[in-house]
């Protein structure tokens, strides 16, 4: 219940003191809040008995199998597959297509917009697949996470300077929308499981960081996508 | 009745989102690992709970809190309301006149992050992996403060029309500097927390706020300027979580100098 308390307090305070209008449908509000709390409890329970064990179990099994190819294939498909179907990404891709039309980057037709949105989704999904793959590779070879992330940011800043202005906002936002509620626990469990099954790795310092890659590469890839489209 | 029907629809929706992932995991287990899935029953029941939980969670938000939040975002960015609450005396609205918007943005960013399921997942994992050194609650509050601050600042950017990448470049620079000084233990977790903050709960609400704001401010296009709030919401938690780690170390140092205890360098990381 305390998870939801801050939202309730914020909305109640603003309604009472700033907007000063009575809220309609109080009963349905309470009922909706009860649904949210019950839903969260179910989700957390399922997380503990299914998502975490399966993610770590597969990581252990893949490490024990000793096949780098399948480990990388798993990492890539997990990133690509969960992102391409992400509803939040769909919404952003459609809005981005409208921005592109407004800026005159693509033709104002249904077909051109669909193509653009699909292209964007593919680019973002590809970038997340690559991100998880790089992240897993990093855990195995033990490269420095801060150095890689900082290098990534430097690339992002450089790419921003050459990318067309209308893609910049979309690109930075796409880094945030890619990681869904089901993907995050799975990817976290994958990283932690892998780090704990490899010798000399600390799951705390080496297991985390996969999601960081998954929020960084989409920015870079989308900026480059916008730049390439402009050149063509 | 309506709520029950839409609950069923939302659960079906979340099943459609989750089932391909389940299918992929099982296919991998069967064809690549070539062994039976351990605890199949438990895993299947767990996925059932995940699907039902997400469905109920979303229907609750979508039917009640989201419409209210969107309505409030509209009301707060309504020109008539802004005119009535202004600080400056006359002329066009200045950026200070939007103070309710900043407050609301920060408050809604903070409170929605506290209810974000993906963040709970990562906090639970971090807590168990660190052997309790990182508190579930502490990490969530640190991330939520970052999101609140980020969204508030993002609104300021939309209102003033400053370029997004100025803020991003400065933020990244802060991250780089902090990384050099923060305890090693917290760094990967901090980087991850940028990505997990923005999913089911936070994105729809702050997107509505950004679009409403871009419409209300003269000279802003919702399409060009409405974007970017999510970027703020993913950058600032990195900074706040790194700061959380630095604060814990600092507090420990103060405690130690007070008691005159010798500080061992390896112990730094256990302060969290």
Q: Could you please describe the fold and organization of this structure?
A:
The complex is a heterodimer of chains A (232) and B (272). Helix content of chain A is 83%, strand content 0%. Chain A is built from ten helices and no strands. In chain A, helix 2 packs parallel to helix 8, helix 4 runs antiparallel to helix 7 and helix 7 packs antiparallel against helix 10. The N and C termini of chain A lie far apart (53 Å). The model of chain A has no long low-confidence stretch (mean pLDDT 85). In chain B, helix 2 packs antiparallel against helix 4, helix 7 packs parallel to helix 11 and helix 8 packs antiparallel against helix 11. With 272 residues, chain B is mainly α. The termini of chain B are far apart. Chains A and B meet through helix 1, helix 2, helix 3, helix 4 and helix 6 of A and helix 1, helix 2, helix 4, helix 5 and helix 7 of B.
Please describe the structure with a list of short key phrases separated by commas or semicolons.
heterodimer; A: 232 residues; mainly alpha; 83% helix; B: 272 residues; 11 helices; globular
């Amino acid at each position: 219940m305390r998870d939801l308390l801050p939202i309730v307090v914020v909305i109640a305070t603003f309604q009472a003191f700033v907007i000063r209008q009575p809220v309609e449908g109080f009963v349905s509000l309470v009922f909706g809040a009860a649904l949210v709390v019950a839903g969260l409890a179910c989700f957390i329970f399922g997380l503990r008995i299914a998502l975490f064990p399966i993610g770590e179990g597969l990581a252990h099994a893949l490490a024990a199998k000793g096949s780098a190819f399948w480990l990388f294939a798993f990492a890539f498909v997990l990133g690509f597959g969960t992102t391409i179907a992400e509803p939040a990404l769909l919404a952003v891709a459609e809005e981005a297509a409208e921005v592109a039309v407004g800026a005159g980057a693509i033709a104002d037709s249904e077909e051109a917009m669909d193509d653009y949105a699909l292209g964007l989704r593919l680019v973002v999904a590809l970038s997340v697949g690559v991100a998880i793959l790089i992240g897993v590779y990093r855990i195995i070879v033990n490269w420095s996470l801060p150095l890689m992330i900082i290098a990534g940011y430097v690339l992002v800043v450089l790419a921003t300077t050459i990318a067309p202005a209308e893609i910049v906002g979309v690109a930075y936002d796409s880094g945030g929308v890619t990681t869904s509620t089901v993907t995050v626990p799975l990817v976290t469990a994958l990283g932690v499981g892998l780090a704990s099954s490899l010798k000399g790795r600390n799951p705390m310092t080496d297991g985390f960081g996969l999601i960081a890659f998954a929020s960084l590469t989409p920015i870079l890839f989308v900026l480059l996508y916008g730049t390439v489209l402009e050149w063509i | 009745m309506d709520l029950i029907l839409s609950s069923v629809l939302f659960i079906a929706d979340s099943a459609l989102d989750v089932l391909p992932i389940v299918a992929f995991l099982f296919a991998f287990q069967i064809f690549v690992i070539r062994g039976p899935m351990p605890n199949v029953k438990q895993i299947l029941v767990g996925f059932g709970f995940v699907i039902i939980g997400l469905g109920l969670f979303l229907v609750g938000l979508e039917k009640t809190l989201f419409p209210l939040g969107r309505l409030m975002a509209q009301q707060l960015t309504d020109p008539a309301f802004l005119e009535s609450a202004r600080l400056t005396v006359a002329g066009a609205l200045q950026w200070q006149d939007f103070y309710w918007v900043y407050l609301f943005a920060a408050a809604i960013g903070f409170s929605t992050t506290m209810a974000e399921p993906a963040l709970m997942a990562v906090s639970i994992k971090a807590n168990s992996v660190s052997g309790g050194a990182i508190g579930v609650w502490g990490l969530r509050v640190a991330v939520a403060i970052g999101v609140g601050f980020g969204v508030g600042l993002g609104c300021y950017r939309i209102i003033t029309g400053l370029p997004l990448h100025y803020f991003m470049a400065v933020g990244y620079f802060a991250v780089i500097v902090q990384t050099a000084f923060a305890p090693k233990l917290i760094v990967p977790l901090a980087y991850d927390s940028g990505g997990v903050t923005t999913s089911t709960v936070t994105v729809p609400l702050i997107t509505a706020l950004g679009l409403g704001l871009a419409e209300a401010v003269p000279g802003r296009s919702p399409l060009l300027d409405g974007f970017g709030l999510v970027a703020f919401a993913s950058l600032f938690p990195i900074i706040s979580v790194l700061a959380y780690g630095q604060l814990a170390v600092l507090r420990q140092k103060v405690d130690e100098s007070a008691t005159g205890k010798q500080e061992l360098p390896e112990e730094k990381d256990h302060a969290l």
